[in-house]
Amino acid sequence: MSGAMLELILKATLDTLYMVGVSGLISALLGVPLGVLLYVTRPGQVLAHPLASQVLGAVTNVGRSVPFIILMVAIIPFTRLLVGTSIGTNAAIVPLTIAAIPFVARLVEGALNEVPPGLVEAAQSMGATPRQIILKVLLPEARGGIFTGLTITVVTLISYSAMAGAVGGGGLGDLGIRYGYNRFDPTVMLITVVILVVMVQGFQMLGDRLVRRTDHK
Amino acid sequence: MIRLHNVSKTYYLKGDPKRGLKSRGKGRSDASPGRDAEPRVVEALKNVDLHVPQGQIHGVIGLSGAGKSTLIRCVNLLERPTAGSVFVDGQELTGLANGALHRARHRIGMIFQHFNLLTNRNVFDNVSLPLELMGMQRAAIRERVTPLLELVGLADKADQYPARLSGGQKQRVAIARALASRPRVLLCDEATSALDPQTTGSILALLRDINHKLGLTILLITHEMEVVKSICHRVSLISDGKLVEEADVGDFFTAPRTRLGREFLNDFLQLEPPRALIERLEETPGDHTHPVVRLAFSGDAVSTPLISRLARECGVDVSILQAKVESIQERTLGLMIAELIGATRETARAIDYLETHDLHVEVLGHVRRDA
Lengths: 217, 371
Known about the structure:
The complex is a heterodimer of chains A (217) and B (371).
Chain A: H1 3-40, H2 50-65, H3 68-74, H4 76-83, H5 89-113, H6 117-125, H7 130-141, H8 143-161, H9 172-181, H10 186-214
Chain B: E1 2-14, H1 17-25, E2 39-52, E3 57-61, H2 68-75, E4 83-88, E5 91-92, H3 98-105, E6 108-111, H4 123-133, H5 138-151, H6 167-179, E7 185-189, H7 197-214, E8 217-222, H8 225-231, E9 234-239, E10 242-248, H9 249-254, H10 259-269, H11 275-280, E11 289-298, H12 300-303, H13 306-314, E12 317-328, E13 331-341, H14 344-356, E14 360-368
Parallel strand pairs in B: 3-8, 3-9, 6-7, 7-8
Antiparallel strand pairs in B: 1-2, 1-4, 4-5, 9-10, 11-13, 11-14, 12-13
Helix pairs in contact in B: 4-5, 4-6, 5-6, 6-7
């Protein structure tokens, strides 16, 4: 294999890590609060609010139901507004993030739902405010579930990022299709797939370790 | 210290009554009731009046679904009463805005059947939680928590996580946590129901100790007579959302006034006439019948040889079918089921005699002598 090819593979790997890293980080920062809101506005919860609950739920569902490849193309004007261009890795990060936020939010909501209601009740009996209940009870107790959800999100982002080639986003998936598939180069195809597998394994292990370290259930 | 005045709680439910009731009664759970179902009205509490003076341990006993949980949750307004008012330590909680209510709850500790410890905090940090919520500084928290852990006998477990503790140890942590904010009142929601009998005993001893040492007022709900017997000063009986009977525990064990009270007591004491006799019991006396009586006596009567005197002075023979002696608080209570054998006039006189000697006599029925 030529040095040029290796360089391409290296660049593609870094592109993938960059896209997944940035979109993963932003979607966690926005998705976790959204997940918390989805949960606490449910009927019977500490900030129960039927209207907010329904609106947030509907918005989240819309975000979750648009196929990623369509979302990517559909929000091009928004992407251009945000990063000044509609092609390249930065442009790919926008749809990746937008797709991941509701994904994270639903996983976080699910993790919060696993916190026994008795713990919230106990905190209420101690005079905890809703804000204290969220920060001192719900989030710490759902920590394991939230980290598990974020790991799933990163892994999903790795696979979504392969579609980023459609907007010239680069990355391993794009390389695999252009060189491995379109130019019938099985070696390149194999290498990209192996790197992706290793990447997924690595993130999964990291996530599992984080959950074990921080969760005392 | 705790006063409930005419408190009622009504739930308006839709759909499956059981699922709906649980989901609201226990706080959360998103069992969303069906939309097309008829709304149902459940009166969980009906005009409840309750007063627990400073330093008293008051037990509320009742069957599942009687409204015990709702009652105790109305005291700290985890459930807001539909009507009526709740006073704790002279302050009307039902009139407070949210912020003031959160502060008032710092003066009310609560422990639960399933302990409700935070799994991701160790023992020390669990006990710290209420103090953190009050905004106390780290150093002050340490000073407060360490002696509490000693009080509940878990000083050596400060760094352990709840998953490593036994049920009894978890409840001790929960008690320390409930005491951290120095409450005036402790609410116990079936605090020993998930524990084995031996552990129950040690937790009850701890509660009694706390009541004694700190003068803490305790309101507890339970379905176990054992709990009432071993630590309560006073007991209320709840049935179908109403308090149907209230008495000092000694009096309740001597002579419950309601049918439900008698059922609870008989279940607990296992003091029933033999089955064969029950089948022969008749409600009204006949020509050749003898009364079967349940005798309860306490205080001096326990040590007086009344039965033999009964034979001598009234000419009645006593056949003892069942008997036991219980200690309740500082009192000794004797209980007996006996058949009084003699002519109708004499047995009537014997019952009078017993009553004048401060025995509680309940005629369970009459048996035919020749049967």
